[in-house]
Design a protein that fits this description.
The complex is a heterotrimer of chains A (172), B (342) and C (425).
Chain A lengths: L8 E7 L6 H4 L8 H4 L11 H4 L5 E4 L12 H5 L4 E4 L4 H9 L4 E3 L3 H4 L5 E5 L4 E4 L5 E3 L5 H9 L2 H16 L1
Parallel strand pairs in A: 1-2, 2-3, 3-4
Antiparallel strand pairs in A: 1-5, 5-6, 6-7
Chain B lengths: L1 H9 L12 H7 L8 E4 L13 E4 L2 H10 L9 E7 L8 H12 L8 E5 L8 H9 L8 E3 L4 H7 L20 E6 L6 E3 L7 E3 L10 E4 L1 H4 L2 H11 L9 E4 L4 H10 L1 H8 L2 E2 L19 E5 L14 E5 L1 H10 L5 H4 L4
Parallel strand pairs in B: 1-2, 3-4, 3-6, 4-5, 9-10, 9-12, 10-11, 12-13
Antiparallel strand pairs in B: 7-8, 7-13
Chain C lengths: L4 H10 L9 E5 L2 E4 L3 H10 L15 E4 L9 H16 L4 E3 L6 H7 L8 E4 L13 E4 L2 H10 L1 E5 L3 E7 L8 H12 L8 E5 L8 H9 L8 E4 L3 H9 L18 E6 L7 E2 L7 E2 L1 H4 L6 E5 H4 L2 H11 L9 E5 L3 H9 L2 H7 L3 E3 L8 H4 L6 E5 L14 E5 L1 H10 L6 H7 L1
Parallel strand pairs in C: 2-3, 2-5, 3-4, 5-6, 8-9, 8-11, 9-10, 14-15, 14-17, 15-16, 17-18
Antiparallel strand pairs in C: 1-7, 12-13, 12-18
The chains are: A alpha/beta (172), B alpha/beta (342), C alpha/beta (425).
Chain lengths: 172, 342, 425
């Protein structure tokens, strides 16, 4: 799945607190199959989340989102989360979502400008996240070109494939 | 089965299969990670090899694919934190208490994206097992790396594990740190993290009296010889409290063998401890699934909600001594109240 | 006409002077073994209109309750069953309750001398026949029967006809129990013992270790038996002394007892036997299966998880390595057996050879510890090789004695253990 960083994302916000762990996002010990897991993701924090979340919704969270294990969040992609905006993300979770890719943005101050259920507009190109209801904004942290390139390629496996093909065709 | 096929196809030499144990412990048991190297692994606790002066950190699937193909990966150079540990090593392991205490004071993300460098007067006294506990838990405080200096302890540890040359690395005298944190361990209480966060830490007295159904020691955080030794030393002549399931699992087959040879297993069996096969299971619901309403005190890596099964089970994290004390008393208790000898 | 062991025990339990095959008796039980599935008994009682489950237990001292099939719990279901069983143990004041440091329930029954000669014991697991090695008429029952047994200490029995297996010759120095039963099942069909009481007798018995006798009685259920019985001899008494058994009265068959059939097995020249997938009776000549690549090799369970089974494996593995590409898993039947192995320094040998020495329990005999994927091959000294027993229905399981399993693990393929046994002995 390619992700165009230039497109604007607009969606309803699910707001979470600090230190949301990857066991809760991805409770695969208990639900090893994705078809079951989609009904239980993040229920440890908000039991209604897996029942009511809709494709195109946005997650906003506080500090250290995705802390804990190395498990990435494909489940969030499967249920159709359009973007994740957080005060800070666990480095491994951040890295994993870049590699997937699933749009994830570090936006200091994001939790102060939006409440649960409100609509958020995410414009990475301008570097601004806007609360559509109140007009309040927060500045988004830009990724270096290297990371933007991973997003543009559709993730690290795609980038690897392109590099591999390129290097092997020149080698021949 | 798929892994075994891929290994054969790719011609991977260092492949460990039916030998039970945790990947990280095998990496160090076998000298696969060496001082000064940069190593990545597809598990968050890869950070643990920092104990051996290795720049190691967790990555995952997609990153792994890229690494396997090219042996390269992108990194953001982290800021560094100087963690000064001062004080005296008591006659029991305190690594878990140190990291819990720090997470309690500074938050479970105080090292977000940073490289921790351990230093201070306690460091030369810290066993390799304790260093590995601290480095492994680097990820619980969000660190990218959690590194110890190379010293005699490291040298001794690596002696019979590798003949591969390596170059230890040390920080420059004028290196710049984002932050310096100083902890005097002599003044530190026994630390317990309450459910459901690593940073939800209080002195053991705060949780005293809570009845426990299960007590555990194991995992890449606390499944090493010194963690099991302290349990065996304390359980000698004592019994696990009625109604408590005390489960211990070594981190690797090599540690299992060491336990057998040291006679710890007999002592633990006689005390009523369930000594299970090495592996990651003890840190997941796979070994010792907790039902609704049950309470577990554990020296393993994490206490997230649902980590041991039911989301309605409560998990308390503590050091192996505190866990053993709880197993004997049947409730969370200050170890000094149970064990006069410490 | 005289009576067989089964007839004597059943008539005594029914308070009758004599009985004959085909009679239906109401018998008083000497014991009930219940594992996690007791929860089904509880649920059946609720369904039958007892909202709190069974109102009471007939004699708490004669009920043996164990959390052993999944230990430590590995699933929510197992975790909850554990919680319930602990509650039951308290509620019914069950003194003989085993939790964390358990092992396979049947081994616990003999380790702790709960099953004694001459007794009639039932258990909610098919391999309850194992205590027959101690001259105890024991057999598996269902969870519903267990409710009645628990409440009243009584159960109906149909007196089985008895068959004799005459063991002649002398057992070799390695465990041969598995071979006796594979041979019988393969030669006479898996139903030759159906509904019957099989008595193992003859001059060869005295050469059989207790461990091998347990293997034989345990596998009684694989050939359909209600009971699989031995008479007591010096070895039995010695075994019972070591386990601090209470006084007991052993039972012998009368000389003129009536048997429906008789079979003879010569222990001196019984070759190692091997059963191919997916049946206990699918006996093959070694020449047909030798060289088949194996992914996994297992030794353990109530069938072969005792000291002598681990000991022969260790003797074969000493100074050798398991073939790369093959996994060897060894799991004792109980912590008592584990301790014996530990004292004899056997785990070191298994581990040095590259094997796994798992904690005791049933997991090695079902897929909770030994999951096989489609196309994988396992040779195992555990109880069964039914399709899907170790996970995938497309996996292949061969049953053999522990020496065959250990030697095959070294070779990475099914191999005749006589190649190495002749070196050892």
């Amino acid at each position: 799945m390619k992700f165009d960083l230039n497109q604007t994302i607009t969606g309803r916000v699910w707001k979470f607190g600090d230190s949301v762990d990857s066991d809760s996002i991805n409770p695969y010990y208990i639900y090893p199959d994705m078809k079951d897991m989609v009904h239980h993701t993040l229920e440890a924090f908000r039991p209604e989340f897996p029942k009511e979340v809709k494709p195109g919704d946005i997650i906003v969270a506080g500090r250290n989102f995705g802390c804990g294990s190395h498990r990435p969040g494909p489940v969030l992609r499967v249920i159709g989360i359009a973007a994740i905006l957080v005060e800070s993300a666990s480095r491994l979770f951040l890295r994993n979502n870049i590699a997937l890719p699933l749009p994830i943005f570090i936006v200091p101050g994001i939790t102060a400008i939006i409440d649960d259920g409100q609509t958020l507009e995410v414009n990475y190109n301008k570097g601004i996240a806007t609360n559509v209801t109140t007009g309040a904004t927060a500045a988004m942290r830009k990724y270096p070109a290297m990371i933007e390139h991973i997003f543009a390629c559709g993730g690290l496996p795609q980038l690897a494939r392109e590099r591999y093909l390129k290097e092997n065709s020149t080698a021949d | 089965m798929q892994i075994r096929k891929q290994v054969a196809k790719l011609g991977i030499e260092h492949f460990v299969d039916a030998e039970p144990g945790i990947s990280h412990q095998m990496m160090v048991d076998r000298g696969y990670a060496r001082p000064g190297e940069l190593v990545v692994g597809n598990d968050s606790h890869t950070v643990g090899y920092g104990a051996l002066n290795v720049g190691s950190t967790g990555i995952t699937r997609a990153d792994m694919l890229y690494t396997l193909l090219f042996g390269e990966l992108w990194f953001q150079v982290p800021g560094s934190i100087k963690l000064v540990l001062n004080g005296k090593q008591p006659n029991y392991p305190i690594a878990k208490d140190i990291i819990l205490h720090l997470a309690g004071l500074y938050g479970d993300d105080f090292a977000q994206n940073s490289s921790i460098e351990f230093t201070g007067s306690l460091v030369p006294q810290l066993s390799m097992d304790s260093r590995m506990c601290l480095s492994t838990h680097g990820v619980e405080v969000a660190a990218k790396f959690a590194m110890f200096p190379f010293d005699e302890v490291t040298d001794e540890y690596l002696k019979d594990k590798t003949d591969h040359p390596y170059e230890p690395i040390a920080a420059d005298a004028d290196a710049v740190y984002d932050r310096e944190i100083v902890l005097n361990v002599d003044e530190m209480p026994f630390a317990v993290a309450k459910p459901h966060h690593f940073g939800n830490v209080f002195p053991v007295s705060d949780s005293a009296g809570i009845k426990v159904d299960q007590a555990q020691i194991g995992s890449c955080a606390n499944g090493r010889l010194e963690d099991i030794e302290i349990a065996a030393r304390m359980m000698k002549g004592r019994k696990v409290a009625k109604g408590v399931r005390f489960v211990i699992s070594p981190a690797s087959q090599m540690i299992y063998l060491q336990c057998i040879k040291a006679g710890y297993i007999e002592t633990l069996l006689e005390a009523g401890v369930q000594f299970v096969t090495p592996g990651c299971g003890i840190c997941q619901p796979k070994v010792g699934y907790m039902a609704e309403g049950e309470v577990c005190i554990t020296a393993t890596t994490r206490n997230f909600k649902g980590r041991k099964g039911s989301q309605k089970a409560d998990i308390y994290l503590a050091g192996p001594l505190t866990v053993t004390a709880a197993a004997v008393a049947g409730r969370i208790i200050d170890p000094r109240e149970v064990f006069d000898e410490i | 006409m005289g009576m067989t062991i089964a007839e004597k025990i059943l008539s005594r339990a029914a308070g009758l002077a004599s009985t004959k095959p085909g009679d239906y008796l109401d018998c008083a039980l000497d014991g009930l073994m219940a594992q996690e599935s007791f929860i089904e008994t509880h649920n059946a009682a609720i369904d039958a209109g007892m909202p709190d489950g069974l109102p009471g237990a007939w004699d708490p001292d004669k009920i043996f309750m164990m959390i052993e099939h999944y230990q430590p719990a590995s699933t929510l279901r197992a975790g909850l069953r554990g919680v319930k069983l602990r509650e039951f143990a308290k509620r019914y004041k069950i003194k003989n309750f085993h939790d964390t440091t358990c092992g396979v329930c049947h081994q616990m029954m003999v380790d702790n001398a709960y099953a004694l000669p001459g007794q009639l014991i039932v258990g909610t697991d098919s391999h309850t026949t194992m205590y027959g090695a101690l001259n105890c008429a024991s057999t598996g029952i269902g969870e519903t029967d267990a409710g009645y047994a628990m409440s009243f200490g009584e159960l109906w029995f149909r007196v089985p006809s008895s068959v004799r297996v005459e063991l002649v010759g002398k057992a070799p120095n390695w465990p041969i129990g598995k071979d006796v039963m594979l041979h019988l099942g393969g030669t006479y069909g898996l139903d030759f013992g159906l509904y019957k009481s099989v008595e193992f007798t003859g001059p060869g018995v005295e050469s059989l270790s207790m461990d091998s006798r347990f293997t034989i009685a345990d596998h009684g259920v694989e050939v359909g038996t209600k009971f699989a019985l031995f008479e007591c001899d010096e070895r039995t008494h010695e075994y019972l002394r070591k386990t601090n058994a209470k006084p007991y009265e052993s039972v012998k068959a009368d000389r003129d007892a009536g048997y429906a059939a008789s079979y003879t097995v010569n222990l001196s020249n019984l070759a190692p036997q091997i059963a191919a997938p997916h049946s206990f009776g699918n006996l093959k000549d070694f020449r047909e299966v030798e060289g088949i690549h194996i992914d996994q090799a297992c030794i353990g369970s109530c069938a072969n998880g005792r000291f002598e089974d681990v000991e022969i494996a260790a003797k074969i593995l000493k100074g050798r390595k398991i073939k790369s590409g093959t996994r060897l898993l060894v799991s004792c039947a109980s912590w008592g057996e584990y301790r014996k192995c530990l004292d004899a320094k056997l785990p070191e040998i298994i581990i040095d050879a590259g094997g796994q020495f798992l904690d005791p329990g049933c997991g090695i005999c079902n897929y909770s510890r030994t999951y096989l994927t489609p196309g994988e091959v396992c040779v195992t000294a555990t109880s069964r090789n039914h399709q899907g027993r170790m996970g995938s229905k497309e996996a292949l399981i061969y049953l053999a004695n522990p020496a065959t399993v250990a030697w095959s693990a070294v070779r990475g393929e099914i191999a005749d253990p006589r190649e190495v046994l002749c070196e050892l002995y």
